[in-house]
Design brief:
It is built from 3 helices and 12 strands; from the N terminus they run H-E-E-E-E-E-E-E-H-E-E-E-E-E-H. By secondary structure, the protein is mostly beta strands.
């Protein structure tokens, strides 16, 4: 089973900019962020992660949900199901990619659904280690943001003229 193939992710034809100690994603590669430098060129792979319960604060990008009876869901369908039903299936398992690059398997009860999910940027779909954790995104009039990105990341200050 290929975890990378099923990770909860979006492809964005934008760039990641570093401004002070924050990383922001532009939704178009041509948009400029004032007083910032490009740290990741387009296209950018964006993956969504759930915090683990525990002291080491690792995050898991879900790929495959397996219920106690063997039913399976993949990618964004798995994401939507577990966020609506995690209390009902504490012994169900998630296979995914951990923020330290390891392929992992956890019970849903080992994930912290009370904490806010994280958004990570990767150079390409084959990378297993995130390049950056995103802090926000710059909107674009021409490009509609992916729905998960829009719900999980704040819109940052307006882009430069």
């Amino acid at each position: 089973m290929d975890i990378l193939e099923h990770c909860v992710q979006d492809y964005v034809n934008g760039a990641v900019w570093q401004k002070n100690d924050q990383y922001v994603l532009t939704l178009s590669p041509y948009e400029i962020v004032q007083k910032a430098s490009v740290v990741l060129q387009p296209p950018v792979v964006v993956r969504y992660a759930i915090p683990r319960i525990g002291p080491n604060h690792l995050y898991v990008v879900p790929a495959i949900f397996v219920s106690e009876k063997g039913g399976m869901l993949y990618g964004k369908q798995a994401w939507q199901f577990i966020f609506k039903n995690y209390q009902l299936y504490p012994r169900a398992e998630i296979f995914g990619l951990q923020s330290d690059g390891k392929k992992v398997q956890y019970f849903l009860r080992e994930l912290d659904f009370a904490d806010h999910p994280r958004v990570f940027a990767y150079e390409n779909e084959q990378k297993i280690m995130p390049s950056f954790q995103l802090d926000g995104f710059y909107p674009s009039k021409e490009v509609q943001p992916p729905s998960l990105l829009k719900t999980l990341l704040p819109i940052t200050a307006p882009k430069a003229p």
